[in-house]
Amino acid sequence: MSPEQPQAILVLPHLRIQNANAIASPLTHGFPSITAFTGVMWALERKLAQAGVPLQLHGVGVVCHHHQEQVTQGYVRNFNLTRNPVDKDGSTAAIVEEGRMHLQITLVLAVSERRTPGTPAALVQGNQAQLDEWAAKAGHILAGMRVAGGSLLPSRPVPGKRVRPWMAVVPEDPVAAEKEFRQWRRQWLPGFALVGREDLLAQRLQDLRTTQPDATLLDALLHAARFNYAPVLPDSGVPAPDGQVPWADPRRPKGSGWVVPIPVGYAALTPTHAPGTVRNARDATVPMRFVESVYALGEWISPHRLTHLGQLLWHAEANAERGLYRCRNGYQPAKAEDAGADGHPTIDTLDEWDDDEAYAYT
Q1: How do strand 247-248 and strand 150-153 relate by DSSP bridges?
Q2: Tens-digit pLDDT profile for residues 87-146
Q3: Tens digit of pLDDT for each residue in 202-257?
Q4: CB of 303 closer than 8 Å to CB of 191
Q5: Distance between CA 155 and CA 162 in Å, rounded?
Q6: What mean pLDDT is predicted for residues 5-26?
Q7: What gap in Å lies between CA 103 and CA 100, rounded to an integer?
Q8: 3-state secondary structure the chain
Q9: Domain positions in the chain
Q10: Can you give the pLDDT at residue 339?
Q11: What are the residues whose beta carbons fall under 8 Å from the beta carbon of 133, sequence distance 6 or more?
Q12: Are 113 and 55 spatial neighbours (Cβ–Cβ below 8 Å)?
């Protein structure tokens, strides 16, 4: 099964998470790392296997509906910290800085069936009762788990929103699969989906090397992560009569999108150590390796701008020889003839908004 075409999807809609980890890496904050959600995916798969549910999870998509970072407001923001209990000798315990945030997200998981030889397939069209049972079990198991370090709160029934987990089979025909996806994506509105934009990082590096031939990918990432204001002349090249010149970021024009630096995985710093040879390792039964974060650019876009399921899903890749463990996303910007000024499909290319199932009261 290719990552682009899973057998089915498992949707965990409108999860309310309290005190999730807001510090995604040593350099970024404001939303959990995508590796936190791949970790949830693998932990859920193991618990489903223990419960007798023969499902394998291959990819995860994240749609954020609401976020509230626990920080003080103002020009300079600080995390709201808690005072720990006193030490055993009565002295004041040190404050360990930790960032927390409240989230409401939808997780979309790519699913395949783990079948034993000679048994009929259950992950097929027309077997919705079995799919509903598996989805309910997955939601029940997830309710007792941590998601990105946060605790799950019970979902509140809301008119117009599907808050119960559900599963659906992905048609094998690509055209039919895209049609089904257009129905599913409307249920994730309003919200923003996190997608990868490595193409923007490559373009930024190319632009930098026109003036800085020795620029590296790190220079491009740091340049894209900040505002770079410069005087901007009108298209005619003639200054305004009053002599005033506006300042703006020439590489971040209006409509360029909500682009942010994100951690996407880890790169090895040391060779692999044998199990049990590193003191205080979390798991002494598996090999251990010291790593550092790997960064890329991501973009938050509305789900209705996605055209197929592969653009939403993130898949984990591991290359032990290179020491690279990272997540990849299948998003590609729209073609020039189908896109507007912001690089996304125009409203003329979208379907009519008449899907009643997207607003079912469940």
Answers
A1: unpaired
A2: 788 787 777 778 889 999 999 999 998 877 777 777 777 788 889 999 999 999 999 999
A3: 888 998 898 888 888 888 988 888 888 888 877 766 777 777 888 888 888 777 88
A4: yes
A5: 10
A6: 90
A7: 10
A8: CCCCCCCEEEEEEEEEEEEEECCCCCCCCCCCCHHHHHHHHHHHHHHHHHCCCCEEEEEEEEEEEEEEECECCCCCCCECCCCCCCCCCCCCCCCCCCCEEEEEEEEEEEEEECCCCCCCCCCCCCCHHHHHHHHHHHHHHHCCCEECCEEEECCCCCCCCCCCCEEEECCCCHHHHHHHHHHHHHHHCCCEEEEECHHHHHHHHHHHCCCCCCCCHHHHHHHHCCCCCEECCCCCCCCCCCCCCCEECCCCCCCCCEEEEEEEEEEECCCCECCCCCCCCCCCCCCECCEEEEEEEEEEECHHHCCCHHHCCEEEEEECCCCEEEEEECCCCCCHHHECCCCCECHHHCCCCCCHHHHCCC
A9: 8-71+95-196, 198-298+314-349
A10: 53
A11: none
A12: yes
Task: Pick the closest to residue 63 from 25, 29, 103, 102 (CA basis).
Answer: 103
288 vs 81 pLDDT, higher one? 288
- Residue whose pair of structure tokens reads 């990432």 in the numeric block: 221
**Rounded-to-integer distance, Cα 132 and Cα 138, Å:** 10
Cα–Cα distance for residue pair 182/303, rounded to 1 Å: 9
The torsion angles phi and psi of 222, rounded to 5 degrees, stand at -65, -35
The pTM is what? 0.83
Cα distances from 261 to residues 62, 75, 150, 282, in angstroms, run 16, 21, 22, 28
356 pLDDT higher than 50: no
Tokens of 201: 């990082």
pLDDT for res 343: 52
Torsion angle (degrees, nearest 10) of CA 287, 288, 291, 294: 40
Please classify residue 141 by burial: count the beta carbons closer than 10 Å to its beta carbon, then call 0-12 exposed, 13-18 middle and 19+ buried.
middle
CA distance 31 to 53: 31
Residue 303 to residue 331: CA distance in whole angstroms: 12
CA distance 208 to 349: 34
User: Crossing angle of helices 217-224/198-208, nearest 10°?
Assistant: 110
Residues recorded for the chain: 362
Instruction: Give the number of other CB atoms < 10 A from CB of residue 256.
Output: 14
